[in-house]
Amino acid sequence: MKIKLETLQHQTDALAAIDKSFPGMDTMSANPDANYIYANPLIRYRYNDKANIDIKMETGTGKTYVYTRMMYELHQKYALFKFVIAVPSPSIKEGTRNFIESDYAKQHFSEFYENTRIQLNVINAGDFSARSGRRNFPAQLSEFVEATRQNANQIEVLLVNQGMLHSKSMHRDDYDQTLLGGETSPIKAIAATRPVVIIDEPQRFPRGKKFYEDIEAMSPQLIVRFGATFPETTSGRSKNKVTKIDYYRGEPQFNLDAVDSFNQGLVKGIDIDYPDIPEEQANNLYKVKQAKAKELIITKGKKEYSLNVGENLVDVDSGFEGNITYVGGTDCELSNGLALSKDMKLIPGTFAQNYQDEIISQALDCHFKAEEENFLRPNSGDNAPKIKTLSLFFIDSISSFRGEANGKGWLARDFETILIKKLKKLIARYELAMDDREKEYYSFLQATLRSLQSKHQDVYAGYFSEDRGSSDADIQAEVEDILSNKEKLLSFKDEDGNWLTRRFLFSKWTLREGWDNPNVFTIAKLRTSGSEISKIQEVGRGLRLPVDETGHRLNQDEWQSRLSFLIGYDERDFAQKLVGEINDDSPIKLNQEELTDDMIKLIVQVRQKTAPQFNEDQLLDDLDEHNVITRSNKFKDDVKLDGQTMSGYDALCQLYPELEQQTKVAKGKVRDKNSKDNIVVRLRKQNWQQLKNLWLQLAKRQMIKFDPSVNQDAEIVARNVFNDSDNKIFVLQRPQMVHQEVITDKNAAFIRETQADYNTDYLTMNYGKFLKILAQQTDLSVNLLNNLMIKAIKRLRNNTNYINEKTLENLIRTFNNQFNKRIKTSYSYEPLNFSASTSIYNAKEQEFVDSVPASLLGVYQSNSTSDEKYLYDRPPLYYDSADPELKILKRSYGPRISVFGKLPKKAIKIPRFDNGTTTPDFIFKIEHGYKPIYLVIETKAENMRLGDEEIHIIQQKYFDQLKESGVYYRMATSEQEVHDLINKLENGELS
Hints:
Elements (H helix, E strand, L loop, with lengths): L8 H13 L31 E5 L5 H16 L3 E6 L2 H12 L1 H8 L6 E6 L16 H8 L7 E8 H5 L1 H4 L14 H6 L4 E5 L9 H8 L4 E6 L4 E4 L6 E4 L8 E3 L1 H6 L5 E5 L5 H5 L2 E6 L3 E6 L2 E6 L17 E3 L4 E2 L10 E2 L6 H24 L13 E5 L4 H4 L7 H21 L5 H17 L7 E4 L9 H11 L2 H5 L13 E4 L12 E6 L9 H5 L22 E5 L7 H11 L12 H11 L8 H10 L13 E3 L2 E3 L1 H8 L2 H6 L6 E3 L7 E3 L2 H4 L3 H7 L1 E7 L3 H14 L12 E9 L4 E9 L9 H12 L3 H14 L9 H19 L3 E9 L5 E2 L4 E2 L2 E3 L6 E3 L14 E3 L2 H9 L6 E6 L7 E2 L5 E2 L3 E5 L6 E7 L8 H13 L6 E6 L2 H12 L5
Parallel strand pairs: 1-6, 1-9, 2-4, 2-5, 3-4, 5-6, 10-21, 10-24, 17-19, 17-20, 18-19, 20-21, 39-40
Antiparallel strand pairs: 7-8, 11-12, 11-16, 12-13, 14-15, 22-23, 25-32, 26-29, 27-28, 30-31, 33-34, 35-38, 36-37, 38-39
């Protein structure tokens, strides 16, 4: 397969921002060296930090693409031809080199910049080695410095990492060679070319520090920084201390932050999971008090333990399995490669081999779940291109993987054993496959198993820093595949049609930065990284959106993709920290005490996209009207909104949800499978048993049977709609020209937008397609619709221009609205001869389930006293609204109420006539003589929303048929209304 680079909108926006921010060229300079052929032309405001540009782009959104294309753009528009790319590490340098030199990148950029090429010059450690006693410049440095403007179709790029840039080799001036006829210092020779410098990962080049001084030594005319994170500066002391992000112009010229990247679907969603451990093991916690080169001190409670180099952790606690000793040194490492630092937590149970095996097993389950979906592509149409699925494992020790004498380490052996077991189970599932794609997947799995059982398996591979000097051919092949053969890793078959089964990769943090592959769907950390690296950077290797086997990148609308990230118990707060990092990346900091100017500005900006005249005054007036804020813009403590009491800040978010939508990662983008989102609430089975007889009836599935008159009603409604008495349904459609005017008044500037027809030709539709869609969306016969259309067009003087998308949309919407209103009571429920399981009931076992997810009971929780009549364990209580739900739940009920409680979502699944199902909110069992009464309640706020009345009618019709069984149904808008209902039923006042 060949990767196809595609121009994405956010990358185009970034390039437009650079173009807008670029200071322009100095064509009027009197500088005698302005036309120096070895140097860039002169840029306006050169050597001025205020002219430099900052581009903020989150990990995985393509900043390397943007700065590569920026070089082409600046060369094409302004004849700039010398660029230096400064990166922090050799691994990032390698990743950048691979991208710029890749065939797919060259092919892509040649489509926009014909006959223009990049000459990439990479400086590596060792390039300055003296030969034959002479100290010469590397050829690639000479190529960059001495290239001239005369080659108008070539862009010279020097790629260097900060370590190399800071080295003595770059700054010394005693070479036996000169550049540009006299320069003997590499850094000064580069400065003479007046380069444009691109800084990748600017937080690693903070101003005022040594690595930035190296940047300044190159005397760049212009610096453009690209990164997800920028350096910070601090001013003042103690209470006056202020920390802010160090942008050249005070703010980035383009800002695609983490919140936008996740919420706009520019990266994968994330699922985080870890194997739990018993509470006893979790509490057996040690903390690093001190880690020195020759001594480690750890503590547990008030007790200290000292270990010298070579001493074993198992002597401290038998839970530290695996013969782990203290190695010390500059990195203060354990023998398993884990670097230690002060206050780091160590849980012995997570060092056990069986615990790491559990992470591997879960990671493989995640891998194959994703692989099946990506290979088979269900619900994506016939023959949708397959997606190769890769998984990445970060491990703590090369010896656990490679072993001695080119053998396999214990981790590799365990991985193979677990993988083969899962493969055989999966192969058995597809052995009798009938579908062609399933047969193909069966063949792929068999090839994987054969490879694993061969002498030289090609299913998994490793890359470690120690591999760079290895002479082993198999190891070098693995390294080459991982680092350079991205397209091979993404392909299913080689040129001869043989399956390429390599898809599991292992590394000891070496691949943590610089390397990426878009089809990594699972990352497993078999040991904590031991450092405070950014959580976003840790997941960054798997954030990029995947490509299919044709090389096409799949956005989230085309194919929902998620990264499974597996960690150990000692990092169980990872998801919380990750979400915190994402939200902290928002430029606006939310204040829950008062409405700040930044919050006002954000709300107004977003609202003006759809309501151009919306302004700050309208916002403040609206909040005053709802009694949300004080005169000084402080939030009030208790605000009533839609029947609920909440804080002023919560009321603001309910009225203007865009505030949190723009500043917080959307729910579900990052999921912690061990978090409270997956908390379950246990049922009190003895209480639910009191509802068993009723539930045997409720579990019976029901079919909606429409009255015989419905077909006639549909035809009557259709004829009425097609008559179009108001002349609003059949309309002509022309292309529209959008006209925008900038209007200014004393308060602000805003855009007024109008639309007008600009073409005399009408837009129309193919009549067959028009009829087909109309029939599908209305369930009316094509014959009836055709007859009605003939009459309508005849009435419109045979003008077929009325057959267009707007008319179609009007017909469908108007018919469905009128028909639903007419038939909302014209049906009945007919029991079927089978039962079905719901969220609360297992129909096959005819038993209630043991527990339900808390989210099915409500999104909020509240502390409460226990109540033996309640249907679930409590506290806490889960609810969706403070009034009336929470008030109903917290009330005490008399002795005749034997059980009560909230019904989980999808507990009954009452069929709706307009598709879907509905379930009411509460149930009460009232003891009433020999025959109990079951009170079923649907709660709504007093100001009911559109559709609430329809739900009421549907539920009423369903429960009316159960009156003989003692079921009484009512909609209630307050806790008092429910209380009064119970009293009347207890006293026999209602029948």
